Amino acid sequence: MEPQTSQNGVVAVCILKGGMGKSTIAINLAHRLQENHGKTVYVDVDKNGHGTEFLGFGKAYSENGQLENVIFRDAHPSELLIETEWGFSVVPSSAEMSTINDRMKNQMNADVILKNKIVDPLREDGHEYVVLDTPGDPSKVADNALVAAQSFIVPVIPGQGSISGLERIMESQLLPIIEATNGAADILAITPNMLSESIRPKKPDRRLLEDLNENWVDYLPPYARITDEQWEQIDNQGRGDIPLPGIRERDALSDSFSDNKPVAQYDSSCDQIKHFDTLAEIVAERA
Question: Does the keyword Metal-binding apply (predicted)?
Answer without folding.
Answer: no
